[in-house]
Design brief:
The structure holds two protein chains of two kinds. Chain A is an all-alpha fold. Chain A contains 15 helices and no strands. Classes of the chains: A mainly alpha, B alpha/beta.
Chain lengths: ~325, ~350
């Protein structure tokens, strides 16, 4: 098992190389340059070229790629931002921490709302417990995430004036962004949990549990749920990953200092070090989440664990 | 529970009377079990024989009241177990019975064990459910002794179902069913999913356990070989009806049989007779959503007469042997509907 985890962590190296290469390649084929973006449309071309040269932007992209990878792996250096001239790591790290915190809370909330509702909907299929949450969940699935955020802003900040509408200086500031992040995946979690539970409560071993004389509570929460959790855990992992990088809209809406909005802000300036540094951290985070999901799998399902142990034996 | 009171009566432990079960879906009503009567005597094994879809498993699930909640409905009759009508007692009563006084071995051991729990946990769960006051250590001891009884080393109880072979899994299922020493064990095709050598082992083990624990048994099967090997009494089921019943001797030795039973026997190869091919029963079983008016077997019967398609045959009895067929109804023997 540990060997497997170590192996998975080593896979991070090619992942980082691939991500870096792809971003340099994409940056290379898209128009625009940092010199023009920073100096403005009226600057002389000679000044722009000189500025780009100073940044090291005018080097061939393969060379830039090799330099970057050398700095990163040998010195742990993420470079200097073209735009702010600050070290990239110092710029992205706090924002990254903020995003992870927000996403963790959002994912947790979406699980706390979605999973129990999904279980109840499956157990009480065709009753009000099923139909009402299902209809609401379909409704939410049809609405873009930012609309949820705007509705929250309208109700709680503008009309009721209960919650602050921007910034992140106190716990109360987190409430609306968290809800805006959590509600769409909560609806998704509910549907996933429901379909997975519906499948699992029709299995023979659930009938066996009933034939043992187990009360319905035990049958559902012990026998059916554990088997139904695998797809839900996968879904949770994907949600968490998506919330870290994909919270841009919510970050913009509530003026929050997240990593997603930082990357998006720097794209017009072609601030390569920040964009690449941010993306590398995100992909590492995503890979770690997926690894955690796999480890949880092994804890839930002994058959999967057996496979890992066999791998270890090789 | 009043299990001791009834110990003095050496007779019927389970009495099913006029049981009618349907499956109701939006599209149709499936008449799975149609007014059957069954008696299981204490310490004896009743074989319930019939082809797939005849209503055998439905009958078994009705006894435990475990029919699919949304569709399966009991529409009449009674099931008396140790003096109580199981169709009238409340759910808590049923829960106390299930796995304790009446337990069931299911057909497919591959899917009837929970893949994410160790077999030890799954067996001890039954004991803890029905003897909640038993100390943990004694529960574990009971698990160990039950595993030994079914021929699995107790050291393997921390393993998961996927680490066992099919035959071993069925032993685990049987261990789960017998660990509370049930008065009635329902075995629903316990060996169908196993290969032949393992079948023989499991059957021998079950017979042995039955004698050791004095358990009555309902053995559901489509295999007449298993019936001959394990059963004392036999009921043949066709399209949700008991069409022939009696002791094993009645079924295997008597001359007179329902044409369906005769057909069942002719579908088995006989090593002593030289014949070119087997005689399978032609046609398919009657659609239980649309049963014929007369005898349900009439469309497939080689001896079908006019009356067979018009009138439902009644039960004719010779001592312990009962038949539901027009061929024998008009004979000189006395007619008795629902005779003992």
């Amino acid at each position: 098992m540990y060997k497997y985890i170590l192996k998975r962590l080593l896979f991070l190296i090619p992942t980082i190389l691939g991500v870096t290469f792809i971003i340099y390649a994409v940056m290379n084929i898209t128009p625009g340059d940092p010199g023009r973006a920073i100096l403005g449309a009226n600057a002389m071309q000679a000044d722009v070229d000189a500025y780009n040269h100073m940044l090291g932007y005018d080097l061939p992209f393969l060379q830039k790629f090799v330099n970057y990878v050398q700095d990163l792996f040998l010195k742990g250096d993420f470079g200097i931002s073209y735009f702010t001239k600050q070290p990239v790591f110092a710029e992205i790290w706090p924002r990254y921490g903020f995003s992870v915190r927000l996403a963790l809370m959002g994912a947790l909330l979406s699980a706390v709302i979605g999973i129990p509702l999904g279980i109840y909907a499956a157990v009480k299929q065709y009753s009000l417990w099923d139909t009402v949450p299902s209809v609401i969940s379909f409704l939410i699935a049809a609405i873009p995430g930012f609309v949820v955020g705007m509705l929250l802003l309208y109700i709680f900040a503008l009309k009721l004036n209960w919650l602050p509408s921007y910034g992140a200086s106190s716990l109360r500031h987190y409430i609306m962004p968290m809800l805006a992040l959590a509600i769409p995946p909560a609806a998704q979690n509910m549907r996933f949990t429901k379909s997975s539970m519906l499948e699992s409560i029709r299995q023979d071993y659930v009938r066996t549990a009933r034939a043992k004389g187990a009360p319905e509570r035990t049958v559902i929460w012990k026998h059916a749920l554990k088997n139904a959790m695998l797809p839900v855990v996968t879904q949770m992992g994907l949600t968490l990953g998506a919330l870290i990088a994909g919270a841009v809209v919510v970050e913009k809406l509530f003026s929050l200092p997240g990593i997603g909005s930082l990357i998006v802000d720097r794209i017009p300036f072609k601030d390569e070090p920040v964009i690449i540094g941010g993306t590398i951290l995100l992909s590492v985070c995503f890979a770690v989440i997926m690894l955690v999901v796999d480890v949880i799998y092994a804890f839930i399902d002994p058959r999967i664990k057996a496979k890992y142990v066999k791998m270890k034996g090789k | 529970m009043s299990r001791n009171e009834t110990d003095k009566t050496k007779e019927t432990i389970l009495e099913i009377k006029d049981l009618k079960v349907i499956y109701q879906t939006d599209a149709e009503v499936i008449e799975a079990v149609n007014h059957i009567d069954l008696n299981i005597l204490r310490g004896r094994t009743l074989g319930l024989v019939g082809e797939t879809g005849a209503g055998k498993t439905t009958t078994a699930l009705s006894i435990l009241r475990l029919l699919p909640e949304m569709t399966g409905k009991i529409r009449g009759g009674s099931i008396f177990f140790e003096g109580h009508n199981l169709l009238e007692v409340d759910e808590n009563w049923m829960r106390a019975l299930r796995g304790n006084a009446i337990s069931m071995v299911f057909q497919d051991p591959m899917s009837s064990l929970n893949p994410v729990l160790t077999i030890g946990e799954q067996i001890s769960e039954v004991i803890r459910l029905h003897e909640p006051d038993l100390p943990r250590r004694e529960v574990e001891e009971k698990v160990d002794s039950t595993l030994n009884l079914v021929g699995i080393p107790a050291s393997r109880k921390a393993e998961y179902p996927h680490q066992f072979s099919g035959g071993m899994k069925q032993r685990v299922v049987i261990a789960m069913a017998i660990c509370c020493e049930p008065a009635l064990l329902i075995a629903d095709e316990p060996t169908t999913a196993l290969d032949v050598t393992i079948q023989a082992q499991v059957l021998a083990m079950m017979s042995d356990l039955k004698h050791r624990l004095g358990t009555s048994m309902l053995m559901i099967t489509h295999d007449l070989g298993i019936v001959a090997q394990t059963c004392d009494d036999v009921a043949v089921m066709y399209a949700g009806e008991i069409i022939e019943a009696g002791t094993v001797e009645d079924i295997f030795l008597n001359e007179q049989h329902h044409p369906y039973t005769t057909g069942l026997f002719q579908s088995i190869p006989d090593i002593n007779k030289k014949s070119d091919r087997l005689k399978p029963i032609p046609g398919l079983m009657a659609d239980p959503a649309n049963l014929p008016k007369g005898c349900a077997f009439a469309p497939r019967c080689g001896q079908c007469r006019e009356i067979c398609t018009k009138e439902h045959p009644v039960l004719t009895a010779w001592g312990t042997h009962q038949l539901r067929c027009h061929l024998f109804a008009s004979s000189e023997k006395e007619q008795e509907r629902g005779a003992e």
